[in-house]
Amino acid sequence: MASTLNPMTPHGNELKHEVGLRELRDSLSRYVEHVARGEEVVVTVRGRRVARLAPIESEDPLADLRRRGLVREPSAPKRPAAEHRMRGQRRVTVSDLVAEQRR
Prior knowledge:
- The chain has 103 residues and is of the alpha+beta class.
- The protein has a domain at 1-72: YefM-like fold.
- Helix content is 30%, strand content 14%.
- Strands 1-2-3 form a three-stranded mixed β-sheet.
- Strand 2 (41-45) and strand 3 (48-53) form a beta hairpin.
- The longest helix has 9 residues, at 28-36.
- The chain is elongated.
- The relative contact order is 0.09.
């Protein structure tokens, strides 16, 4: 029966689904490849779960946010900036503001 241990490292060839920070750092490229194949890896620091490495979906990120209800399409077209000003308010230019401050 062949040994599953790599003679160069004390770790087995099989990667864990939960890994300590030191082991992750020592075998980062192997864990990134593992995640790229669709697996998830939970990272721990002193036994406490602190992060999760997960594959990125090829889906459009905005579509994902819409599906999860975090963003929605606008219900009406955006109004031009001029419509946002209050009625009767005079338009002030930058030149006017600078001139007023110099007085």
